[in-house]
Amino acid sequence: MANGEDWQRVIALNEVPNGGLRCLERGAVRLLICRVHDEAYAVINRCPHLGLDLDQAAMYEHELVCPHHNACFDIRSGKPTSGPSVFPLGGYPCRVLDGEVEVDFANPDSTMDRHMRAVNAAKR
Ligand code: FES
What we know:
This protein has one helix and eleven strands. By secondary structure, the chain is mainly β. It has one domain: Rieske [2Fe-2S] iron-sulphur domain (Rieske Iron-sulfur Protein).
C-alpha cells in the first residue's frame, strides 16, 4: 500500500466478457466488474434507486441498466443517465495491469459520499 491506496487483484480481464460484467465479493464488499474492450470498471452491486442487486444488469458500452426499474448509469462516473434513480452508482478506482483487473479498496466512492459531495458543492 502506498499513498493511501490498496490495489488488489480481483480477476483476470479475460474472465470478464467484453461488454458484460462479473459479480464478485471481497469481504463485505459486493462488486460488479464491468468490461468495455480493454477497460474495466468496478461498481458497487447495489442499485441506488431501491438498493436491489445488479447481478442481471445489462450493459451497453459504458451504460449499465438496472434490471428492476431500468435506471441507467454511466459506469465511468456513476452518474444516473436516465430512469428513476436520482443518486449515482457507487464504485472504486479500477485499473488493468498485465491483463489483471485491480481495485483500490482504500478509496471507495460510495453513493452517499458522492451524493454528499455533490450536495456540498452545490451549496458553495
Ligand atoms: S432498484 Fe434499480 S432501478 Fe429500481
